[in-house]
Each structure stands twice: as structure tokens, then as C-alpha cells.
Amino acid sequence: MNVLVTGGAGFIGSNFIRYSMENHPAYRIINYDKLTYAGNLENLAGIEKNPQYVFEKGDICDKHNVLRCLKEYRIDMLVHFAAESHVDRSILGSAEFVQTNFVGTSILLDAAKEIGVNRFLQVSTDEVYGSLGDSGSFTEATPLHPNSPYSATKASADMLALAYQHTFGLPVILTRCSNNYGPYQFPEKLIPLMIVNAMHDKPLPVYGDGMNVRDWLHVLDHCSAIDAVLHGGTIGEVYNIGGNHEKPNLEIVRLILKNLNKPESLITYVKDRPGHDRRYAIDSGKIQRELGWQPSYSFERGISETIKWYVNNQSWWTRIISGKYQEYYNVMYGGREVVK
Q1: Does residue 258 share a domain with residue 134?
Q2: pTM (2 decimals)?
Q3: Catalytic (active site) residue 127
Q4: 340 found inside a domain
Q5: 328 counts as catalytic
Q6: What is the C-alpha to C-alpha distance for residues 55 and 321, in angstroms, rounded to an integer?
Q7: Which tens digits make up the pLDDT trace of 180-199?
Q8: Dist. CA 62–CA 122, nearest whole Å
Q9: Active site residue 150
């Protein structure tokens, strides 16, 4: 089985490659990644020695290279993670998000249709559903209502993928997950940014009142869910994936400070992000009923292991902060660090 993973050098993609190679050692995994600022081959250290792993540097918007790659490796299944994903950057400028998230997906769909893949798994986000009130959860039947340029491009890509399934019979399956956390997450996101800043005794920037609620999903639980959908999901269906751990951002920040024995005085409230969704919550009953999937990580275990990972892998994120990460923030935010 030949599996193409787009964005395999990123946070979720690299964890999925590690998970797949451990659980499906006979599979050949082709990692197709452009290596943008958030892509890091160090996330896959050691994997490159495995003869079942191949890295192909490439842009999903390069239709000739995408098609060549799918043909050359005779791809059976395609798992599509590659995306511009940081909401703040999409607010500053959406063009790159439209190009990568929508146009890039259309190019992948065309190539997959031409060679006839057995599965095309579009990995998406709960942000396409918009914002919830104080109660209720997103189901697969919830109407799409994206509220940021990022989520609008992801919703558009989702609709295009499902249209290819309906129109051309392309075997598309779609997943939508809640907020991921865990090892190898680029330190622009809430949890790793707060850990890194706290370890340096730097201010921890919190949007608004800090009471925006997210459902937190450990990345390895996400990987196991994607694996279940890839192998057992029904073509043309959408599967929501959640961790069942709703937490306000402020509670997460305080928990990190407590774990690292740092004072809450490091918390710094900043002006809220435009259009900041108030609450997300995922109903993952469908994947549990149909495929028998369940999250295995409690939030207490997951966040404790994640904090320990960043404490024990300072060389990984120190190189990022001193290099691409710092340059990125200097250009995009003038050095001001913000969070998702």
C-alpha cells in the first residue's frame, strides 16, 4: 500500500506518519511537503532511515509535480493535511490561504481523479462550523458558517472535495477535528506558545477575557481516528473527531503556569482578535458508533505529557524560536506574539 501524506513535516502530519509507520509497517509512506515556516523535518528524526519512508519536497499548488509524484509512487491512498492554518495570519492577508487551502486542494483532487486513488481523505477543522453558544455541539449535519478567512478556505476545500465525490465518484472521505495539542506543535499555537513563554518568564498573551472555549484533542488520538476513517470510513461521509475536553483558554494557561511553577502575573490580556469564535464543541458520536473509535487520552495526562515533552526537547523549539519562528513574528507581528 502506497500512501501519500501532504504536509507530513507539519505538526499533525508528522505525528500521523509516525503513527502509520508503527501500526502499518508494510505501508510505503510518501511525505509531500513544501517545508514552509511550520514544516520541519526534525519532526521525523529517525524516520528517514526507514526504507518504507520517502520524502518529496513539493508544493501542492504545483500541478505537474503533484501528478508526477502520484504516478511515480502509484499512490493508493492520499491523506491531505497540507494547509495554511494560523487564523491570525489569515486575518492579515487571505491570498496565501486561498491559494494553498483551496487551489492546492483542487490540484490534488484533479491528480487523484486522473490516477484513480482508492481513498482521498480530506483533513479539515471544526472551525468551518462557526461559533457555538453556551450549549450544544457541532455534528456532521451542522451547517457550515466559517467566520475567518482561514476557516472559509477550509470550508471551500471541503465542499470541493465532496463535489468531486458526487460528480466524479472520487472516493473522498472528510474529517473535521477539534483543537489538537501534543509534541511537535509549532510554537505559534496556544499551548506550545504558553509553555515556551512561561519557561522564559515572558508574558503570556491571552485574547480578550480568556474565556473562549475549545475542545482539546491529543494529536495521537486524532491520528488513530484518521487511521480508522481511512481504513473503515464510508465514502462520501464526514466524520467529526473530538477529544471531549472543553476548556476555556484562560484555564489552559493557568494550568500550564501551575505545572511549571510560574506565577499567574505572567498572564497578559491583549485586545481580542477580530471575529474571534466564542466556543467550539464536537459531537464525535458518529465515528464512535460506526468505527468504534474512542479518544484514549485524558486531558490531564495529555497536557502533562505535552508540557514534559517541551521541557525535555528545548533544543527542538529553541532552534525554531531563534530562526524561522522569530523571523516570522518579526515580519508578521513586529515581534508581538499572539495565540490562536
Answers
A1: no
A2: 0.92
A3: yes
A4: no
A5: no
A6: 25
A7: 999 999 888 899 999 999 99
A8: 18
A9: yes
